[in-house]
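For consistency, the fold was encoded as tokens, which produced the following:
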Amino acid sequence: MNSMRQLFLSILCCLCFLQSFSLPAYSATEEKDQWIFHLTPYSWLAGQRGTVATLPELPPADIDIDFYDDVLDNLNGALMLVGEVRQGRVGVVLDISYIDIESEEPLSSSYFSQVSSTTKTWMVSTAAFYRLFEADKEFLDLLAGIRYWSVESGLTLTGGTHGPKCFSNREEWVDPILGLKGLTVLGDSNFFLIGNFLIGGFGVESDFMWDATLNLGYAWTETFSTTIGYRYLDVDYQKDDFLYDVSQSGPIIGFSWRF
């Protein structure tokens, strides 16, 4: 667990180092028939708050994990990547996010002395977008697509008189999503603001979901940029005994290549 935390901190240090030096994510000189590609790995230190009942054998439980402490201590692994392709006013974007969090807590029980819980969450979003507005240093896109969720939970009770007991469950669902994303350059500088706002679910699977991100970026070259900002995500999903009513929020750091 300590080695994972050291690795994660090392990655963040590298990203901050890049942020302190060097991307235009946008160029007004692009030709209409030119294919534009973006690839953006990112790190999201997201705390979690809400109520979950991911194991049918157990009652709902409240969760409260701070991004600045608990996430780094309990993180087993993470993968976060955005890819985008555009030609003229139309394009497609794909966002992949995976996080594996584990925690261990003592129990004051004669039956068990310790509980270990794991949560593995996949969130894969794909959307087509249309450029509603474009000027010399700004644009606004309309998005429509889907978001796939997979939440796998495990619980292991050990010690005490009843020996180890394990519970596990996995739930998958797909939400429709709609949203906006846009960019504006700050004056004549290389700094820019970029963000997006998504809503989804609409009772199709999740009752409702919304996801908002705002980043401050710096364009170092025509092909490379870095961003730092904040992301907030809230989802409310319930099916039978499965409940996932969770908000996630925290700082987000990324770097992007345009080619």
Notes: The longest strand covers residues 114-134.
